[in-house]
């Protein structure tokens, strides 16, 4: 979606259009200039001064240009600011009840700017000698200030007649700040890590409705496994992980939280930080962290209703609304909801989903804020294991072939609740306390692919039946102290935190493992070449597992983003983790006794990085980071010993470049990551036990670019060269490439909207996503001891879109219409595999999605 923020300023003398930078897109405007020909951000008029009175302000941390516009809206003031002075400056904001004079003084504190009256009703902002740059915001909530904050004196402004501001949102493809790399907001350009953000604008333009599709916009990231329709496994820099997905800084993994395909209905942005994230997030694989940032409550009224329809019977109405609940706007809310029903290109596969996400904000005082967020998801769909390998590739059958019983479903109920309290202890320090609880109940019922019987050419696929009711819970408490202060001339953005967590799961697994394949009619099967040739049986099931797991987590972490100079930035931090796991096995049909195992792991994960800017648009950066990940549940050696956690080490370096005042950003990064203590099946003891001799290494180069090239023309693109190999192992072939990791991977998406004339409001988008060939499973040293390897061919998928967007199509109503086309060339491709020749996930053929959205304000 590329609607411009069009700010219409109505004065008693004249009406002008505002032209701003920062978070506001360029608009057609009547522009004034200063003596150096810099465009001004607001218009000038004449009037007599008026006395100002205290009033309520709520201007969160943001780029200075957009803050000035917000101030004009809330205070009814007119300010002049050359746009070249706005570039690169931000404000910590202002909140609470102040006179406009005090509020503006607070808002400009630390920006290096002061203001003066140039004529009646007109104030011009100008540089202040020896004033430091504005501190970066400390969190998603504004840093509260009080009238007695010590700042440098500035000339007193005057009040002018009412300015009426009307805004239509445009979030763009590039952002200035991210909190995922440091857990507190910091400029991406100054952060010595590779950080990429997929904005809401990108999600809307691409009409993304599944979280995994958002990640194609980030280099080296993809979903390798859907786990049959569950949370999924993601590849980041060549390493597969279920651990590295978070939401607002809380763990959102596929084991104890997200058990169904994630939705994006309440997501504002997706932030990806490359390299090991254990220094702030705890146990994780070394590829990186994916953090979902949810939509915040709104102070101003907003309503939208959207209908999405598409191929294969897709039907998805959704709403997004928010605003203030009281006159003083101290109580606010946001609600996102959707219902989805649809078929699939997969024969007989039907899905039903409901997602509800209310959020409430309470400004308890000028220094204290409380936020409550909740989510509920219902998901009902078959377990879909895709196709099967055939020879060295994938079976030559249609991707529509469903190799199982689609009438059996995985049904999931998932709920989350988060409460967060921010309190500003002073103007330098803030306290954050947050508690998140998540509970999921699911019933896994399937008749799914097991193994091919006899010769592959016969196509007889044995089917296994499973019934697995599961309940998982996770509860996390985070307490953090944030700091934003200076020591001499050195600026600090610090965090000290402690995290406590408990995770519980219980599952009873029953199944029939395919029956007696030597006796015709005694086992369930399907013919992959003729799916009408099949036999679905319902024999008595065997309870093969009845287990519960409890994890207790303690993490203590710290970090400091240090500005040694205006162009030299250092980040360092670390985390100490204690991870205690207890596994209880209850009696089942194989074991008559109850057993319990306990394992406690500890680790310290450091991180250090440096960023240097020889000139402001260019940042050179480098970092070293380590990771920590406990071994999988129940892994044992032949002697009954437990294993040390996996540990990873990463070296990264690169260059960042921003153009057009930060509207276009790019990053090039080189990395070298190694992880050890990788578990391998014990080849000397029947593969029922494990040995920890494995080592894997990933190295490569990545390129990302996102932002605006010209007014109306946006782009987001990436490329990754990633070489991930087994470097040490007893079972897998050393030097072989890791599964699901393509040597070459990249994507491109670009949109253009006509800015004027009869075509104004029309736009189009085009893009592509490509992956090179990938191994389906690990290659063994001795092929006789494990499954034969196979490859998934490389592919290029082309996408496109057509748009029409009309502001004020009705009074206070905007229209947004789009048709999005996926895989327009109808290319056959496979998205990934899951450790077996019988599980190869398919990519969708040509698909069209139409959407019609009305925004009311």
TrEMBL record:
<protein>
    <submittedName>
        <fullName>Putative Ferric iron uptake protein</fullName>
    </submittedName>
</protein>
<dbReference type="Pfam" id="PF07715">
    <property type="entry name" value="Plug"/>
</dbReference>
<keyword id="KW-0798">TonB box</keyword>
<dbReference type="GO" id="GO:0015344">
    <property type="term" value="F:siderophore uptake transmembrane transporter activity"/>
</dbReference>
<keyword id="KW-0732">Signal</keyword>
<keyword id="KW-0406">Ion transport</keyword>
<dbReference type="Pfam" id="PF00593">
    <property type="entry name" value="TonB_dep_Rec_b-barrel"/>
</dbReference>
<keyword id="KW-0408">Iron</keyword>
<comment type="similarity">
    <text>Belongs to the TonB-dependent receptor family.</text>
</comment>
<dbReference type="GO" id="GO:0009279">
    <property type="term" value="C:cell outer membrane"/>
</dbReference>
<dbReference type="InterPro" id="IPR000531">
    <property type="entry name" value="Beta-barrel_TonB"/>
</dbReference>
<dbReference type="InterPro" id="IPR039426">
    <property type="entry name" value="TonB-dep_rcpt-like"/>
</dbReference>
<keyword id="KW-0813">Transport</keyword>
<dbReference type="InterPro" id="IPR011662">
    <property type="entry name" value="Secretin/TonB_short_N"/>
</dbReference>
<dbReference type="InterPro" id="IPR036942">
    <property type="entry name" value="Beta-barrel_TonB_sf"/>
</dbReference>
<dbReference type="InterPro" id="IPR010105">
    <property type="entry name" value="TonB_sidphr_rcpt"/>
</dbReference>
<feature type="domain" description="Secretin/TonB short N-terminal">
    <location>
        <begin position="77"/>
        <end position="128"/>
    </location>
</feature>
<keyword id="KW-0675">Receptor</keyword>
<dbReference type="InterPro" id="IPR012910">
    <property type="entry name" value="Plug_dom"/>
</dbReference>
<dbReference type="InterPro" id="IPR037066">
    <property type="entry name" value="Plug_dom_sf"/>
</dbReference>
<dbReference type="GO" id="GO:0015891">
    <property type="term" value="P:siderophore transport"/>
</dbReference>
<keyword id="KW-1134">Transmembrane beta strand</keyword>
<dbReference type="GO" id="GO:0038023">
    <property type="term" value="F:signaling receptor activity"/>
</dbReference>
<dbReference type="Pfam" id="PF07660">
    <property type="entry name" value="STN"/>
</dbReference>
<keyword id="KW-0410">Iron transport</keyword>
<keyword id="KW-0998">Cell outer membrane</keyword>
<keyword id="KW-0472">Membrane</keyword>
<keyword id="KW-0812">Transmembrane</keyword>
């Amino acid at each position: 979606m590329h609607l411009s923020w069009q700010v219409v300023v109505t004065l008693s003398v004249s009406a002008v259009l505002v032209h701003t930078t920062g978070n506001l897109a360029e608009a057609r405007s009547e522009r004034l200039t200063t003596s150096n020909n810099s465009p001004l951000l607001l218009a000038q008029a004449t009037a007599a001064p008026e006395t100002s009175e205290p009033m309520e302000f709520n201007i969160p941390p943001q780029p200075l240009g957009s803050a000035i516009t917000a101030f004009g809206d809330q205070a009814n003031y007119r300010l002049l600011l050359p746009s070249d002075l706005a570039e690169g400056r931000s404000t910590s904001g202002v909140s609470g009840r102040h006179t406009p004079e005090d509020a503006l003084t607070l808002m400009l504190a630390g920006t290096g700017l002061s203001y003066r009256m140039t004529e009646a009703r007109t104030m011009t902002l100008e540089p202040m000698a020896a004033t430091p740059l504005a501190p970066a915001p400390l969190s998603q909530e504004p840093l509260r200030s009080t009238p007695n904050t010590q700042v440098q004196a500035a000339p007193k402004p005057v009040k002018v007649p009412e300015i009426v501001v009307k805004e239509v949102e445009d979030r763009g493809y590039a952002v200035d700040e991210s909190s995922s790399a440091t857990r507190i907001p910091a400029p991406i350009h100054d952060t010595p890590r590779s950080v990429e953000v997929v904005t809401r604008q990108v999600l809307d333009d691409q009409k993304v409705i599944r979280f995994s599709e958002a990640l194609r916009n980030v280099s080296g990231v993809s979903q390798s496994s859907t786990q049959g329709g569950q949370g999924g496994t993601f590849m980041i820099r060549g390493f597969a992980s279920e651990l590295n997905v978070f939401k607002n800084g809380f763990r959102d993994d596929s084991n104890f939280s997200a058990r169904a395909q994630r939705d994006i209905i309440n997501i504002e942005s997706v932030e990806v930080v490359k390299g090991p994230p254990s220094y702030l997030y705890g146990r994780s694989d070394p590829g990186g962290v994916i953090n979902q940032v949810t939509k915040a409550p709104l102070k101003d009224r907003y309503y939208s209703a959207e209908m999405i329809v598409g191929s294969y019977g897709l039907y998805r109405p959704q709403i997004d609304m928010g605003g203030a609940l009281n006159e003083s706007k101290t109580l606010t809310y946001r609600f996102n909801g959707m219902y989805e029903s649809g078929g699939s290109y997969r024969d007989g596969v039907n899905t039903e989903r409901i997602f509800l996400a209310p959020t409430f904000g309470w400004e308890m005082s000028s220094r204290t804020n409380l936020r409550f967020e909740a989510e509920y998801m219902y998901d009902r769909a078959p377990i879909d294991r895709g196709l099967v390998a055939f020879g060295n590739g994938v079976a030559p059958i249609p991707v529509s072939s469903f190799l199982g019983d689609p009438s059996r479903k995985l049904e999931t109920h998932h709920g989350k609740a988060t409460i967060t309290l921010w309190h500003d202890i002073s103007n330098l320090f803030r306290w954050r306390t947050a508690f998140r609880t998540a509970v999921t109940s699911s019933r896994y019922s399937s008749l799914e692919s097991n193994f091919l019987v006899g010769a592959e050419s016969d196509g007889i696929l044995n089917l296994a039946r499973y019934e697995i009711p599961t309940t998982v819970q996770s509860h996390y408490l985070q307490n953090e102290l944030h700091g934003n202060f200076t020591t001499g001339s050195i600026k600090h953005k610090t965090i000290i935190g402690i995290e406590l967590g408990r995770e519980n799961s219980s599952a009873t697994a029953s199944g029939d493992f395919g029956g007696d394949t030597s006796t015709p009619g005694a086992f369930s099967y399907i013919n992959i070449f003729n799916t009408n040739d099949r036999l679905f049986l319902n024999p008595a099931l065997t309870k093969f597992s009845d287990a519960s797991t409890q994890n207790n987590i303690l993490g203590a972490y710290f970090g400091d983003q240090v500005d040694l100079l205006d162009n030299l930035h250092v980040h360092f931090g670390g985390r100490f983790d204690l991870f205690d796991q207890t596994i209880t096995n209850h009696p089942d049909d194989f074991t008559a006794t109850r057993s319990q195992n306990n394992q406690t792991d500890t680790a310290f994960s450091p991180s250090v990085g440096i960023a240097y800017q020889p000139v402001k648009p260019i940042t050179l950066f480098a970092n070293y980071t380590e990771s920590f990940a406990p071994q999988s549940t129940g892994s044992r050696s032949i002697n009954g010993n437990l294993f040390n956690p996996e540990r990873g080490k990463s070296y990264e370096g690169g260059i960042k470049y921003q153009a057009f005042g930060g509207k276009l950003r790019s990053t090039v990064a080189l990395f070298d990551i190694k992880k050890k203590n990788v578990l391998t099946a014990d080849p000397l003891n029947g593969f029922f036990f494990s040995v920890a001799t494995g080592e894997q290494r990933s190295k490569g180069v990545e390129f990302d670019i996102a932002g605006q090239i010209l007014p109306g023309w946006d782009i987001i693109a990436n490329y990754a060269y990633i070489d991930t190999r087994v470097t040490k192992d007893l079972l897998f072939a050393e030097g072989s490439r890791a599964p699901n990791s393509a040597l070459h991977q990249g994507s491109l998406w670009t949109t253009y909207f006509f800015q004027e004339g009869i075509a104004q409001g029309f736009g189009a988008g085009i893009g592509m996503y490509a992956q090179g060939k990938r191994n389906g499973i690990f290659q063994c040293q001795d092929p006789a001891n494990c499954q034969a390897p196979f490859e998934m061919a490389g592919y290029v998928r082309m996408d496109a879109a057509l748009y029409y967007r009309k502001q004020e199509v009705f009074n206070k109503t905007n229209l947004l219409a789009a048709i999005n086309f996926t895989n327009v060339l109808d290319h056959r491709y496979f998205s990934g595999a899951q450790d077996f020749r019988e599980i190869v996930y398919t990519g969708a053929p040509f698909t069209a999605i139409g959407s019609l959205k009305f925004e009311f304000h």
